[in-house]
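A quick aside before the break. I want you to see a complete sequence-to-structure record at least once, exactly as it would be stored in a machine-readable document. Don't worry about memorizing anything.
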Amino acid sequence: MLNFVFLTFSEFFLALVYRLRGGGFIQFGGDTPPRLIWSVAFTLVLAGMYHMRYGFGLHDLYLGLAIPLAFAAVAFVPHAFAQQMGRSALPSSSLPLAKRWPQAWMHQATMAEWVGMTENERFFYDFDGMLNVGFFRGLLVFTPLTPLSHSLWAPAAAVLTITIFQAIAYSIGWEVIITLPSLKAHSTEWCEFFNGMAWALAAFVFMFA
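That is the input. The structure line, written in tokens, reads:
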């Protein structure tokens, strides 16, 4: 029971911090400070779950690795226009490879193809793109932390969780009709909020699967 109470707290906490990372609540004047705050917050949640499951031990030092990993995941794995979930006027393929590399293996829709797509076709194209973003971010974070999970398949389950829920978070977020401070209706702001919840769920799967 305590595990699920902590999960609920973690989801709300990381939802707020991930939105902070995206520019909500406080303006930092740069990407590095909010990314670092996010990385530390994620690591604290992961550490809390680890201690609930395994107690304290030598692995505590290894938990610190989660900070640079979580930072790298948001800094170096871009989502390009896929976060618009079909709403962008341009396809992600119009951007340089450095800004869309997680989606590079997909069919790179031309501008003519993009314009000719239906609304649903654009949505599912970007949904696939966000699946790739979630996969590479999850792979970067959870694979090196495998020794903490005491299981070989738990990291894979965590990667699968964030792969799926990264795309779902952005799909749902765009549909929210409520506007709150730093959470504008029908925007990526709610998407970021839900994506923070997805990372809390992935961390829980990593530790308790």
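Two observations worth writing down. The chain has nine helices and no strands. The mean pLDDT is 93. We'll return to this after the break.
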